[in-house]
Design a protein that fits this description.
By secondary structure, this protein is of the alpha+beta class. It folds into 2 domains: 229 residues, 3-Layer(aba) Sandwich (Rossmann fold); 114 residues, OB fold (Dihydrolipoamide Acetyltransferase, E2P), CATH 2.40.50.140. The chain contains 8 helices and 20 strands. It has a 6-stranded mixed β-sheet, with helices on both faces. A hairpin with a 5-residue loop joins β12 and β13. Bound molecules: adenosine-5'-triphosphate (ATP) and magnesium ion. Adenosine-5'-triphosphate binds next to α1. Magnesium ion binds next to α1.
Length: 360
């Protein structure tokens, strides 16, 4: 188990990690996700011991390890650019750290074969890296890390050099590997789909602070702020500026310049009157009969993916994405009426903080 307690990091005067508290439980697959430059790699390198920690505590299994050198932490790290030794075979690459430690050759061979089996590299052990596909090379890099039997494995964007089909395959393989090794994993990515599909727990980072952490579906359903709301989920949540009024008890009425008119239950009057932002995901907008629904808008873009179709409606200043069924008969230029599912609406204040509860 790892704890980060109020961890800070400065590069000169620039504070890049601004007091981060994170707990990763034993055996968990944790994903740190966030946009480029938010501090993901820095955090991971601090856990590995490759960067110093300026303030706060890094605790591994109850012990403060801020000052423990990297090779004494029992942590393995797999980088995005996995430089394999080109002149060595796959087996030699995987077994290199054991050979360095003068482990007898037969024992190295035995352990390499075990690792190769887990990673489905058995047939490639005698090849050089140049004769492998990108995914196979990535698995060799993982093999090099796991042969040390680390209790904690850190991955820094390990799949970003792979094509999309391979990425999908490797996502599944990494999950299988996690189950088999029973190791704790901290995985860094800027790709929210990778985070959603692989994580037990997601930590969303923004500008050196934790924006929110939780189980993938908890972040999807109950984002604490506009940043997480629009970062998790694809296509992203629509944000529509609204004015809130409270005409009658137990309800809040929302109006927007795009012509939207919507009542939400607000039993305890949590929503202040005035300016706010309505968050609604593409999948929670439904086509309504003409003249019905909460608003109507012109369709400007139709993207057909087969199983589903995404329509962009409204103006260039306020585009709204709607998920519809694949075969929907709609063309750009059509006008559609839309209903927002009130139970799936989110409200944010001008600072982007969620206003709860919205619905009763
Ligand atoms: N050695 C350094 N000196 C000064 N600033 C640095 C240094 N390394 C990183 N930074 C800054 O720290 C911030 C966090 O960098 P970091 O590499 O952790 O981001 P990241 O979240 O991993 O981004 P990416 O998704 O692009 O890999 C960035 O603003 C970066 O410019
Ligand atoms: Mg990085």
């Amino acid at each position: 188990m790892i704890n980060l307690r109020n961890v800070r990091k400065f590069y000169g005067a620039l504070e890049v990690i601004k007091g981060v508290d994170i707990t990763v439980e034993d055996g968990e697959f944790a994903v740190f996700v966030g946009p480029s430059g938010c501090g993901k790699s820095t955090l991971l390198r601090m856990i590995a011991g490759l960067e110093g920690i300026d303030e706060g505590d890094l605790i591994l299994n109850g012990k403060r390890i801020n000052d423990v050198p990297p090779d004494k932490r029992g942590i393995a790290m797999v980088f995005q650019s996995y430089a394999l030794y080109p002149h060595m075979s796959v087996a030699e690459n995987i077994g290199f750290s054991l050979s360095l430690k003068k482990v007898p050759e037969a024992e190295v061979r035995r352990q390499v074969e075990g690792v190769a089996e887990i990673l489905q590299l058995t047939d490639y052990l005698d090849r050089r890296p140049a004769a492998l596909s990108g995914g196979q090379r990535q698995r060799v890099a993982i093999g090099r890390a796991i042969i040390k039997k680390p209790a904690l494995i850190l991955f820094d964007e390990p799949l970003s050099n792979l094509d999309s089909a391979l990425r999908v395959q490797m996502r599944a393989e990494l999950q299988r590997l996690h189950r088999e090794l029973k190791a704790t994993v901290v995985y860094v990515t800027h790709d929210q789909v990778e985070a959603m599909t692989m994580a037990d727990r997601i930590v969303v980072l923004n500008k050196g602070v934790v924006a929110q952490e939780g189980a993938p579906m908890a972040l999807y359903h109950e984002p604490d702020n506009e940043f997480v709301a629009t970062f998790i989920g694809s296509p992203k949540m629509n944000i529509i500026p609204v004015t809130a009024t409270r005409p009658a008890g137990g309800k809040v009425h929302l109006d927007s310049p795009i012509g939207l008119s919507l009542d939400l239950a607000d039993a305890n009057g949590a929503v202040p009157q005035g300016e706010a932002k309505l968050g609604i995901r593409p999948e929670h907008l439904k086509i309504a009969a003409e003249g019905q629904g909460n608003f109507s808008a012109e369709v400007v873009i139709v993207e057909r993916l087969g199983v589903e179709t995404y329509m962009t409606v409204g103006s260039q200043q306020q585009p709204i994405v709607v998920r519809a069924e694949g075969d929907i008969a709609v063309r750009s230029g059509d006008r559609v009426a839309l209903t927002a599912d009130p139970a799936a609406c989110h409200l944010f204040d001008s600072a982007g903080k969620v206003i709860r509860p919205v619905t009763a």
